[in-house]
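Working notes for the structural subgroup meeting. M.R. asked for a predicted model of this chain before we commit to crystallization trials. I am recording the input and output together here so anyone reviewing the notebook later can reproduce the run.

Input as submitted:
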Amino acid sequence: MASERRFVAENIRRVLLKEYLMKEVSRAGFGGLDVQRTPMGTRVTLTTERPGIVIGRRGSNIKNLTRAIEEDFSFDNPQIEVQEVANANLNAQIMAEKLAFALERGWHFRRAGHSTVRRIMESGARGCLVVIAGKLTGQRHRTEKFKDGYIKFCGEPKIQFIEQGYAVAKLKQGVIGVSVDIMRPDAKLPADVEVLSKAQATEALPDLFAPKEPVEVVEPIEEPAAEPAEEPVEVVEPIEEPAAEPAEEPVEVVEPIEEPAAEPAEEPVEVVEPIEEPAAEPAEEPVEDAVEEPTDVEQEVTE
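Returned structure, recorded in token form:
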């Protein structure tokens, strides 16, 4: 935990030093700061547009800055080196300060923004983004962006090829923040592909396009075919077949006996008992009239 606090304190001290130098060297055009620790002390590299103003007459200004850095910010044996910017229009911090100074002098924000973008692109930059935020025309906060060319917002191209600068313009209606992002002219994006002509490719890669020496083709010598060697006769031993397993007895298939259909059960016959009639009374024998048999005398008479 102590080491982490030491790193945080070191970074805070460097940020405070940068803000102090931006105020002291604003007239000379502050372009950047680099602090390196060496065995001999601390090397402070200051990049400005006009190094003569920073150095001063007979080095008086730079001596005062060295004393302030050593006493106020506790850097051991600071050594200040002043470098001049090769092209101020391609330095994001210098252009941000110039834009903020133009707004403080009364320039309209659109005129100042477009003018800054045009100057940066005319100097050879691949892209530029200018953002102005604050009370521009009224009481409400606004943000205006001016963009031209290619700009990357994330990833490795942003870390390698984008320079950022920030400045503040103090006006009557409030504070206006200005940020400038510039893509350097030497930036090579992953999508940039250049196709060379054959002559250019030959100059760039002479080994690849060098004439090849003719290769002699050696015909193979045909050797006489070797006679086939007699193959040894292999003695094949008879294979003992396993004893045949007894065949399984055939299983008789017993067909199911069809049972006759059951006859419908006879309905029970009701037994009617005879009705006993009363015994008939014996009929009276008819009384035959007594016929008198004819006598012998009457038979003769009839004859």
